[in-house]
Amino acid sequence: MNIGKAAQRSGLTAKMIRYYESIGLLSPAGRSDNGYRHYSEDDLHRLAFIRRSRDLGFSLEEVGRLLALWQDRHRASAEVKALASSHVEALNRKIEELSSLRDTLQVLVDHCHGDDRPDCPILADLESRPCCGGAGPSAIGSAAEGSTQA
Question: What does pTM read for this prediction?
Answer without folding.
Answer: 0.72
